User: Which sequence fits this backbone?
């Protein structure tokens, strides 16, 4: 209504005077998208202060007009009111296009059931929920969703997992840009500042083709906020402080929007923590320092717009000092002692071993809508990821990284959304991408990942069709071509004997030998085909039924192909294989959902069959100058993963709400008829929340989360020779830690301050009972317990 | 309306320029020249030689050698024992670590000596040897580059040498109790006769 008045006022300013008044204006009002006539549209002739309306064919006429300018205000139910000037020059004909896709211009209040792809099986984390994780990582926030867990290295390196799948099988998309940050490593966490996003969607189902063909695990979308088209300036500052780690986070953001469609946002955050503590000891060298900044500028109108985004993430992550081992016997001692081998007093300093990573991401996107066709979007983006890993080194090399890799990725993506048909929407596009990895010299180690150039071309089409009022179906197809050209040195003995590459890949060998290593140039091309099918049916009582099928294929990543040698920070030898084939997954998932405040429910069973599943498993030891040294190898098996995710919400009384979730999963290595390695155990959580809107929006909650012991694990235990005892000792690297239950307490309230501002105050306690536990999916579980109790206080002021 | 359009165009152009220039900066900030410039393993220890010289007879010198020229992975290392030790004798022991992939071979023992407070050798034997460390670091704690070895009666068994990086110092004298991470762990099969 406000909008309407504004336009009227604007129109008055453009009043024009006219004479000689015998002409007729014939108008026709059509839908912008498909050209259908818009009957019943109201036409207000501002010049003469008269009203008329369009007939069933969308036509109208105004008689007795003079030459000159006529001002019309046209409105129609569900459309944006349009004010236009019509030049009258004799009898005049004018076609007017109206737009009914208003939602894209409005402020979107985030609700859980807002989805881009209605047939997609997904779950979301709202901005409000993100705020409770302001000083945590993306992985920590996602961990709250059923079916999502994480593979951790300590407590600051948190890699999200969907249905037990992680790394290259999970696409993480930040502001519509697929993140490339050397995601192949188990200890490489995504470089995203959780504070920069507006909402996070986790797509467990199959509707992922726009972003790539290889989302075998799923897709994580970190979305920006959508702003209202109006003149406004707002922002917030938040501060979070913690007892455990004696640190916290400060975040600020400022948004300016204009009613002409322009908007701009700046955001920055700084996080610092010292050593964290388990209930019984200090976890030495587990601190984190993180500096993040992002900026966004854009313009949006219905017909055209652009959005430019830039973000910078700089993380320094300490790695538990006690996890630094030299050989298998050190590992055995760590496992058997049950306590960290190195514990020092608390410090904020981060020493070696540590990771230091920065990530630049920039993108620019522009769109234009075409009448009776749809919306064309062009996007260009680039990313630079620089990863340095520091280890305990000899001979004054502590400031020289053992790993120093720089990954540059750039892509161009045009996408056309065709929405001119009444019941059909098509999305089609092309992807062009170039990626370059540079193993930077000066590390004094041979690089685990070699220099390479990679080229990608993708093409896709996805269609969504409304079968009837209650059901919708979507289908998509994608083809990807990828080529990787690497340059790597292999030991002569390994190339000729251990790996037998002299027979398998003689064409890659340049024949040049330097320090008993061949210089080789492996080159591979892959053709990947992927497809998706989705079906949605609305049923009675707010129930919805969804079915998703997905065919996904993934080419082996550089780590799986080229790893060959000592991974210093993991203290293991990792061996990839040039003969890796692509991984192909068939995914089936159904979901029965009820979105209802009083009693909501989601039950989602799924089944995935993955052929040529690539896994990294321990295969024994090799004798080195350090004694026996663990060897891990990438190999391929056929695998199946199936399970069920359940979420329930129930209103008990006006003030009390219950939320519960359960994740059951089973992963099988079908080739060897054993369980798959690193599969999440059964876990469930229950929370009870008291809220009182009248009492400063007070909210008090208690959450219990239980993770059962994983009893299905593959036995990769082995014996190693202990030189001191002069006998073989058992290395139990497979057994899993026991069941644990944690309780968390949350409370928050909102207060009015300085008249117009609001202050949100939250007090939380994590691991309320200070339970000592270890988590199966933490790579450092052999060395130390997880975190003990933490008191956290959060302040957020909106202005 | 037109001014808006103009403004949009201007902004887009400006942004495009900004992006291209940032890209150019990003690409030129290479810390290295491109191409093939890859390092060899600098900290690699390829060779461990423990030389024992009989205090009573300079000609009675036994060299215990471990060599793994291609480092971790690749082919396994090889042991070479030059001969048996004499029973009931006292030897002066000296350990040398080399990186033979460098040319000339790099003496790693020097690095250990320079950082003596962060390193310690541990010796153990099942052939009745008594091994004492005769050198100390700046804090007066043993290092173990120099040793004295006393043999007992005739026996066969092993002699194990362990080098720990950043062990607890002082410690209980055992590799297990000292903690730290293992840089060297070699076990020679020896004979005392």
Assistant:
């Amino acid at each position: 209504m406000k909008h309407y008045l504004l336009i009227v006022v604007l129109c008055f300013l453009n009043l024009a005077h006219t004479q000689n008044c015998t002409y007729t204006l014939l108008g026709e009002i059509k839908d912008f998208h498909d050209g259908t006539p818009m009957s019943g549209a109201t036409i207000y002739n501002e010049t003469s202060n008269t009203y008329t309306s369009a007939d069933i064919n969308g036509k109208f006429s105004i008689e007795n007009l003079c030459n000159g300018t006529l001002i019309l205000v046209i409105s129609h139910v569900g459309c944006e009111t349009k004010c236009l000037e019509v030049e009258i020059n004799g009898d005049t004909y004018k076609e007017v296009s109206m737009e009914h896709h208003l939602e894209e211009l409005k402020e979107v209040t985030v609700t859980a059931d807002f989805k881009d792809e209605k047939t997609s099986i997904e779950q979301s984390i709202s901005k409000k929920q993100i705020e409770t994780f302001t000083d945590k990582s993306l992985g920590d926030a996602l961990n709250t969703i059923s079916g999502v867990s994480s593979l951790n290295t300590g407590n600051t390196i948190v890699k999200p997992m969907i249905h037990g799948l992680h790394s290259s099988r999970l696409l993480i998309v930040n502001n519509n840009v697929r993140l490339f940050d050397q995601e192949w490593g188990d200890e490489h966490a995504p470089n995203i500042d959780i504070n920069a996003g507006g909402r996070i969607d986790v797509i467990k189902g199959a509707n992922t083709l726009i972003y790539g063909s290889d989302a075998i695990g799923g897709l994580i979308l970190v979305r920006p906020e959508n702003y209202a088209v109006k003149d406004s300036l707002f922002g917030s500052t938040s501060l979070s402080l913690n007892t455990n780690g004696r640190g916290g986070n400060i975040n600020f953001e400022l948004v300016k929007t204009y009613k002409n469609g322009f908007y701009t946002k700046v955001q920055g955050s700084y996080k610092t923590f010292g050593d964290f503590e388990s209930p019984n000891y200090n976890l030495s060298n587990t601190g984190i320092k993180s500096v993040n900044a992002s900026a966004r500028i854009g313009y949006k109108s219905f017909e055209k717009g652009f959005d430019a985004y830039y973000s910078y993430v700089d993380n320094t992550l300490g790695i538990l000092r006690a996890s630094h081992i030299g050989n298998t016997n050190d590992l055995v001692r760590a496992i058997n002692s049950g306590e960290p081998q190195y514990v020092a007093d608390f410090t904020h300093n981060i020493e070696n071993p540590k990771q230091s990573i920065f990530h630049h991401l920039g993108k620019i996107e522009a769109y234009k809508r075409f009448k009776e066709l749809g919306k064309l979007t062009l996007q260009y983006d680039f990313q630079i990821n620089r990863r340095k890993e520091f280890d305990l080194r000899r001979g004054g090399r502590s400031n020289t990284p053992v790993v120093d890799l720089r990954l540059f990725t750039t892509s161009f993506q045009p996408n056309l959304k065709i929405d001119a048909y009444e019941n059909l929407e098509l999305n089609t596009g092309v992807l062009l991408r170039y990626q370059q990895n540079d193993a930077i010299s000066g590390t004094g180690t041979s690089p685990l990942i070699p220099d390479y150039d990679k080229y990608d071309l993708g093409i896709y089409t996805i269609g969504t069709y409304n079968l009837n009022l209650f059901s919708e179906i979507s289908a998509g197809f994608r083809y990807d071509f990828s080529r990787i050209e690497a340059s790597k040195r292999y030991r002569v003995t390994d190339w000729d004997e251990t790996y037998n590459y002299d027979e398998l890949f003689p064409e890659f060998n340049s024949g040049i030998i330097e320090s008993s290593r061949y210089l080789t140039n492996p080159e591979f091309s892959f053709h990947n085909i992927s497809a998706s099918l989705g079906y949605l049916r609305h049923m009675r009582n707010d129930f919805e039924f969804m079915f998703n099928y997905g065919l996904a294929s993934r080419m082996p990543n550089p780590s799986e192909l080229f790893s060959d040698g000592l991974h210093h920070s993991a203290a293991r030898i990792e061996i990839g294989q040039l003969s890796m084939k692509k991984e192909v997954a068939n995914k089936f998932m159904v979901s029965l959902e009820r979105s209802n405040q009083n009693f909501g429910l989601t039950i989602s069973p799924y089944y995935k069959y993955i052929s040529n599943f690539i896994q990294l498993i321990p295969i024994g030891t090799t004798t080195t100058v350090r004694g026996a040294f663990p060897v891990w190898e990438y190999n391929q098996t056929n695998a199946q993963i199936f399970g069920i995710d359940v979420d329930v919400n129930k209103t008990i009384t006006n003030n009390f709400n219950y939320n519960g979730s359960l994740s059951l999963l089973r992963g099988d290595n079908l080739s060897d008829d054993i369980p798959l390695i690193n599969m999440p155990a059964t876990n469930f959580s229950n929370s009870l929340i008291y809220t009182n809107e009248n009492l400063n929006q007070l909210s008090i909650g208690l959450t219990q989360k239980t993770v059962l012991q994983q009893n299905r694990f593959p036995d990769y235990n082995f014996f190693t020779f202990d030189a001191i005892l002069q006998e073989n000792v058992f290395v139990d690297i497979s057994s899993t830690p026991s069941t644990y239950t944690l309780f968390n307490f949350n409370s928050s309230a909102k207060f009015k301050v300085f008249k117009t501002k609001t202050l949100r105050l939250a007090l939380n306690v994590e691991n309320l009972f200070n339970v000592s536990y270890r988590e199966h999916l933490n790579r450092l579980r052999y060395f130390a317990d997880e975190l003990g109790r933490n008191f956290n206080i959060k302040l957020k002021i909106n202005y | 309306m037109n001014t808006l359009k103009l403004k949009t165009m201007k902004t887009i152009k400006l942004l495009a320029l900004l992006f291209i220039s940032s890209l150019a900066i990003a690409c030129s900030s290479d810390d290295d020249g491109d191409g093939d410039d890859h390092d060899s393993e600098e900290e690699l220890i390829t060779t461990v030689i423990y030389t024992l010289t009989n205090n009573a007879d300079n000609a009675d010198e036994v060299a215990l050698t471990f060599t793994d020229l291609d480092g971790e992975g690749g082919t396994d290392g090889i042991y070479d024992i030059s001969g048996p030790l004499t029973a009931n004798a006292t030897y002066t022991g000296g350990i040398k670590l080399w990186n033979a992939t460098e040319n000339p071979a790099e003496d790693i023992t020097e690095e250990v000596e320079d950082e003596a407070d962060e390193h310690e050798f541990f010796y153990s034997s099942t052939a009745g040897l008594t091994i004492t460390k005769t050198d100390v670091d700046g804090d007066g704690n043993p290092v173990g580059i120099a040793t004295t070895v006393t043999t007992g009666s005739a026996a066969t068994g092993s002699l194990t040498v362990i080098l720990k990086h950043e062990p607890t110092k002082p410690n209980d004298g055992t590799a297990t109790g000292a903690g730290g991470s293992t840089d060297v762990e070699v076990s020679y099969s020896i004979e005392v006769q």
User: Anything to note?
Assistant: Chain B touches chain A through 65 residues (CB under 8 Å).
